[in-house]
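Input sequence (147 aa), recorded before submission:
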Amino acid sequence: MRKLFNAIGIIIFMLVTCSNLFAQNDFDGYSPTTKPFKDLCYPIKAGSSVKVPIKVTCNITKKFQPYTVSIDINSSFYSDASWVTIDNNSQNVDSSKTITFNLTIKPTATPYITPDGQYPFELSFIVYNKDNARIYPTFTKPAFKFC
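Predicted structure, token format:
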């Protein structure tokens, strides 16, 4: 009987600890232009600009849609937000739909950089539901580096 309880305990422990592996994020974000570079740098010269589309897919329930999603500029671009513009920073999205944010990245001639010459970003998002209540969904956040 004790072996049975031990086996059941192990199974319950495994189910609890592994459940996050199977959970789907409420929102998925990625950039098709930086995705091929993975953890490598996306090359950009100081003083020039590059357009970066950020796609966000809503996987959350239809109950509280539409959701208003925007990129938190201050949290996302901590090194220097002044050289990032977002054409369409507040958008509505329904369940199973995808929206695209268009970023223009233009580092100044003498930008702040990390010691290894990179400009790392991890985008943070602000999300409101249809009742204008801020929600804190799970999110796959696109992260990328310019060098």
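Checked by second reader. The radius of gyration is 20 Å.
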